[in-house]
Amino acid sequence: SIFRRAGFLKVEEASKLVTKFQRLRLQPYTNNSDLDYDADGNAIHCTYYLNDRGLFRQKFFGLRNRVLALARQANEEQKWGMDMSKVSIRVAEFHDYRQGGSLPEKDHYDKGSLVTVDIMLEEADDGGEFQTSAGESAFEKHAFRVGDALVFPSHKYHSVSPVLQGLRRVMVVEVWSGQERTCGHRCELLEGECDFDADSV
């Protein structure tokens, strides 16, 4: 099930976050070489890792705590039954979708995390709909407006339909039982020092 918190952020808060994230000048990544570029070679879906060098915790500590509290609340109210007593931020991502950008894999899920929190920062004019699996070959679309938060168990299949017009910008935070990561990627290490090197990617 999906837990929706309408107006988790005010519209103006969401807009200011986009500006703040852009000012961090983080390195953009594309995760799918075939689908994250258009026919002219332009990136149409980029991911920026806000937890890089611990920036999410340092610069957005209040928001971080609100997201963790929301994840715990959703787990309790939806009776997901997860142990949320000692959780932390695995990764905090800023996703920028342009026309044609999508998350097309219908069997995509956030392996290794407990709860995922998506927050809409800028809504596409057309397309870019958040969808979850609703049985064999069936998918459910979810209302997702600027400032809204959608919270769901990370093992739940989810996808994003292609953006047809405008921009779609969303923050995605994965909560897990490992230590809080400060490396600039989606780390697989529950604990210990990560040797991720951005220059080698």
Structure, briefly:
This protein has helices at residues 11-23, 55-59, 61-77; strands at residues 3-5, 45-49, 88-97, 115-122, 126-127, 130-133, 139-141, 149-153, 158-160, 163-165, 168-176. By secondary structure, it is an alpha+beta fold.
Could you characterize the architecture of this molecule?
By secondary structure, this protein is an alpha+beta fold. It contains 3 helices and 11 strands, in the order βαβααβββββββββ. It is globular and about 45 Å long.
The largest sheet has its strands arranged as 1-8-4-11-3-2
Percent of residues in beta strands:
25-35%
Summed over residues and divided by their number, the pLDDT gives a mean of 94
Number of strands: 11
User: What is the H/E order?
Assistant: EHEHHEEEEEEEEE
**Poorly predicted sequence stretches spanning 5 or more consecutive residues:** none
Task: Supply the helix-strand structural class.
Answer: alpha+beta
* Spatial separation of the terminal alpha carbons: 35 Å
Helix % is 10-25%
What would the principal axes of the Cα set say about the shape? Answer: globular
Which characteristics define this entry?
201 residues; alpha+beta; 3-stranded antiparallel sheet; 3 helices; 17% helix; globular
Topology (SSEs and partners):
Elements: E1 3-5, H1 11-23, E2 45-49, H2 55-59, H3 61-77, E3 88-97, E4 115-122, E5 126-127, E6 130-133, E7 139-141, E8 149-153, E9 158-160, E10 163-165, E11 168-176
Antiparallel strand pairs: 1-8, 2-3, 3-11, 4-8, 4-11, 5-10, 6-7, 6-9
